Each structure stands twice: as structure tokens, then as C-alpha cells.
Amino acid sequence: MYEGGAMTRRRQYGEVANLLQGVVNVLEHFNKYMGIPQIRQLSERVKAAQNELGQQILADFEEAFPSQGTKRPGGPSNVLRDACLVANVLDPRIKQEIIKKFIKQHLSEYLVLFQENQDVAWLDKIDRRYAWIKRQLVDYEEKYGRMFPQEWCMTERIAVEFCHVTRTELAKIMRTRAKEIEVKLLLFAIQRTTNFEGLLAKRFSGCTLADGTVKKPEVALPSTNPFLEDEAGTETDEIVIEKSDTDKPKKPKVPDNPFHGIVSKCFEPHLYVYIESQDKNLGELIDRFVADFKAQGPPKPNVDEGGAVLPSCADLFVYYKKCMVQCSQLSTGEPMIALTTIFQKYLREYAWKILSGNLPKTTSSSGGLTITSLLKEKEGSEVAKFTLEELCLICSILSTAEYCLATTQQLEEKLKEKVDASLVERINLTGEMDTFSMYIFLQEVCAMQWQNVEHVGDQSPYVTSVILHIKQNVPIIRDNLASTRKYFTQFCIKFANSFIPKFINHLFKCKPISMVGAEQLLLDTHSLKMVLLDLPSIGSQVVRKAPASYTKIVVKGMTRAEMILKVVMAPHEPPVVFVDNYIKLLADCSTDTFQKILDMKGLKRSEQSSMLDLFRQRLPAPPSGAENAGSLSLSAPTPEQESSRIRKLEKLIKKRL
């Protein structure tokens, strides 16, 4: 130890490093014997010598590279090079302190040259910052590259600290001069910064970064959809993986830039400037779409090709893709959520101004066409007339809505890929997808004003009118949707899902109702049921069997309507039989539904009260209600009378059809 102390005083750090490493290795073997006084004393002497050696080395570096004062830093030194080897053996804090002091001194000039009050500090001259550090790194490699051990990664550490300082300084000056930031200037600064971060990734591994995290690369799926195109040629350098070819060998994934955001993160609080700019641009784009449609007019009729998709919707989603990619390069955090909100806003505007706003107007209304116009009963059973051009336009808008629906879904998926994992749940375009799938067209079917149909128990002209409209218009719609057959099937399904519940609700509104009225409604219900079952192929020369999913919906829904009317037709005396018959036919345990049936029969409130109490008592008790199953199979009153009524209705239906 005495010899080691002498070498320390003479600064023979090379020899000290070898000797000290050997001593430390030996002491490690005696850790379990520290209870022996001699070994413990020896260990304490070694630690004291290490502390003394560390302080001396720090003083040597301070002398060579002063942190304060006007003295210029010294050049490379073999003594300091060997001192770094000793620091590797000492307390890690010594090495950290050396690195910290050296980098701070190396970047001191930068803080003076680019302080906030200097002209070169502003965003328009941001290139000069990155040019400065490039020169400094070259200068460091030439002068000090061999002084520090290679595993210290000093060049990278200098670059990383420069990035941290730059981010802090830029954030400070942008807060002060926020009103001077324009979108072009902001994008210029971000582009230059991200380019610099890309250069860092090519030069360094990122091993000195605190988190060391590397994001997973994003993937794109091949498709004609703008959000599923191969983006390998873009700045994102994504790897294309075909979902359908999972067994094919795939290209190796390229890790993201570990330096991404190390400086450019400071721009994120100011990206509202970019978002506001996109808001303005999209508003102008929608206005241009409206003007172009008015100037160019609707697409020409072409039944053979089916409804053509409006070109404006493709333009809209291509612009969306451009914005999404650009914004994701700027930030994958809150600005992406803000951009998503802007996307949602203009998807709704496109639906309203371009699609719904350009539907043909009816001759009797100044408002735009709705699907209600195809089904609504006119005075005197007059049928709304639409030209072939107008019907083709309707189908073109339907096809456009289908494209928008599918592409909006892909837009949502892409946004979720681009945004931070913690924000994925906040990306939700379900409302906009519902807009395209229901609001523009099918929601009008849901809003049919059946309550305006009066005297439903009479000759029911509304049934004739509905059937007439369906036969006249559905074949044209089907022919114009020939290229998108799946959408026509979806239309039929959603029409049935919307029409049938509305029809049943209006049955409940027919109160009180007589026996004859109930029979007439049962006849009307069966007629509508037959037409609905035939709706997918109505008026077609080629008769195709309706999809099973559609048939199931119609049969289930309209059969329920028939059962409701049969219960209404049944006598309510004795009450227990009536209640059991209701449970048997409808299998509905809801007191609300039962209450509506009683209202249709015109029972007084006092009668209804006792009937409701009896209904609650007769309900089968789950899950042990199997023993009472017999009560569910009680026969209806006077089955001969009911059978006679049904046979009579069947004859009337056959005659009518």
C-alpha cells in the first residue's frame, strides 16, 4: 500500500490502475471474513486510499478542464487517460463526476452563443445549433477521442447532453415568444430537428440514454384503402406485413429511432398551431367539395356499373392520411388526440354537407330526400316519383357511405397504431362510423312517423302504400348497388331491424282496440311479413333465397307482432287463463309489455291493477321454475273460436295475396 501511495503522489495512474484492480479482486474473496480485525482494517485502508485517489483525480480534471474562469481547457493528456482507467476501479460516482464536469465544460460555449437574447437562438436559425454540435463532436474525436475509455461512449454522451440542453432552451424561448410561432416556422424547426435526431440514430446506439427504450415498429397492411397502403416509401419506413399471408417469411423489423423526441419533444406544447392549421385546411377542403359538387353536378346514371363512389371522399381520406403520418412524426401524444377530434369533426361535416346535403329534393318538400320518402304514405296513396338520375345519385351516395364506413374503421386502427399505448383507449370513431352506417340513410327509416297513420283498424291503406313503394324503388336501389351487394344485404337487415320494432311500437299505440280491429291488424301484419320476407329479391327476374340471417330477423320480429295481436283478441276472463295464455304466447316477463297489452284491450285501471298482481304471481320463478312449467302450457280459452278466427284470417290473406 505504501508503494501504491507513492505512485499516486507521482500520478503514475497506469501502474496504480493495475495494482488497485488486483487489490480489489483479492478483497472480494475475503468479504466473508470481515469479522477478522486484520482483514477489516486492511479493507478500510484500501477504501481510504480509493477516496484519496478519487479526489486527486477529480482535482486533476478540474485543473485541466476548469468549469469556471477564463482559462482555456487543456489538451489531451496521457496522465488523464490513465486516470480514467483508475476511475473505472473506483466508486462509480467518481467516473460520473468526471463525465459530468467534462461535458459541462465542453458545452459552456454553446450556452453563451445561443442564449435566449441572441438572434441565432430563434427557430428560423435552428440549423446553426445542429451545425455547431456537429463541429464540436468532430473536434472532440480529434483531440480527446483516445483520452477516455471507449466504453464510456463520451461522444454519444456529449451529443445526448446537447440534446437535453437544447430542448430546455428551445422550450424556454418558445414560451416567451409563443405569439410569433407560425405553422410554417414550426414545421420547419421540427423537420430540421427530427432530421438531426435521425443522424444521431445512424451514428450512435443510444446506449447512454436513461430509459433505453425502443418502440416497436409499426406495420402497414396492403390495401387500396389509403390507410392500408405500403408506406415503405414514406418517411416512416414502415415494414409491410400481409395479414392474409401469415405463413410467409417476413422482413426483419427495423427498430425505431431511440433518439426520437429527445429534442423535438419541446415542440409538442405548441403543436396546437399545427392542429388549428389543419382544422382550417379541412374546413376549406369541405367547402371546396360542396362547391365542386354544385358545379359539376351529380354523377351520370350507369346502372350497369352500380353506384359510383364520390371522388371527394377519397380525397378527404388521402388528406387525412397525410395529416396523420405528419402529426405522428411530430408527436404520438396528446396532439394525436387533438388531431383525431378534428378528423371526427370533418367526418361528420362530410356526412352532412356532401352526402345528406346532396340527396335529391322531393317535389313536395323543400328539404332533402330521405329514405322515409321511399316508404312514407302520401295523401291519396300517391307515390313519390324520382327520376333514374336521382335514384342513381341516391345509390352513389349509399356507395360513398359504405366506402366512408370501411375507411373510417381503418383510420381508427391506424390512429391507434400511431398514438402512445396509454392513449389508445381515447381513439374512438364509433360515432362517426354509426353516422355513415345509419344516420344519413337508415336512421330515417327508424324515424318513420307511424303514429301519423290514423284509423289503423280500418282498411289499412298504409299497408298498400308501403308495399307499392317497396316494389317500385327497392329493385332500382338493388340494381344500382350491384357492385356492392353486401351493402344491399346490410340495408335489408337494418331496415328490418328498424322497421319491425317501430311497427310493434305502433301496435301498442292502437288502444283501445276492438276484436274486429285486432283481426284487421293481424291480417295487415301477416301481409307485411310476407312482403318483408320477399324484399331482397322483390321485382327480380332471378329469384334468390333471402339470406338466412335476414329471414330469421323478419320471422322472429313479425311473429312477435302476431302473438301480441292474438293475446289482445283473447278474452280476459277468467284472468288466470288470460295471464297464462299471455306467458305462453309471448314468453315476456316484462310488466311493461303486459301493461301495454291491457291498455290495448281497454281495461280499466282497477282491472289492470288486479291483473298485474296476478301476472307477477303467475310468472315462473327462475331457476327452479321447471316445476311450474305446466302453467306455461295452459290452453287458450275457447280454442274452437280461436281456431275459427285463424282459419278465417288465412282465407282472407290468401284472397288478398
Which SSEs are present, and which pair or pack?
Blueprint: H1 2-9, H2 13-29, H3 37-64, H4 78-89, H5 92-106, H6 108-113, H7 126-144, H8 154-176, H9 183-203, E1 219-220, E2 239-240, H10 272-296, H11 311-330, H12 334-355, H13 372-375, H14 388-418, H15 430-439, H16 442-446, H17 461-480, H18 485-509, H19 515-534, H20 548-569, H21 575-586, H22 591-601, H23 605-618, H24 629-632, H25 639-656
Helix pairs in contact: 2-4, 3-4, 3-5, 7-8, 10-12, 11-12, 11-14, 12-14, 14-15, 14-17, 18-20, 19-20, 19-25, 20-21, 20-22, 21-23, 22-23
- First-residue to last-residue Cα separation: 115 Å
Portion in strands: under 5%
Annotation field: number of helices: 25
Low-confidence stretches: 211-225, 227-255, 364-384, 442-457, 624-643
Q: If you consult CATH, what is the topology of the domain at 266-360 and 386-443?
A: Tetracycline Repressor, domain 2
The shape, in one word, is elongated
| CA-based gyration radius | 40 Å
Number of strands: 2
Which structural category do the helix and sheet elements fall into?
mainly alpha
CATH architectural designation of the domain at 266-360 and 386-443? Orthogonal Bundle
For the record, the CATH class of the domain at 266-360 and 386-443 is Mainly Alpha
Helix content estimate: 55-70%
Whole-number mean pLDDT: 75
> In terms of quaternary structure, what is this?
single chain
Main sheet: strands, sense, barrel: 2 strands, parallel
**Order of strands side by side in the largest beta sheet?**
1-2
Keywords: Coiled coil, Endosome, Golgi apparatus, Membrane, Protein transport, Transport
Biased composition (Polar residues): 630-641
InterPro entries: Vps53, Vps53_C, Vps53_C_sf, Vps53_N
GO biological process, one term: protein transport
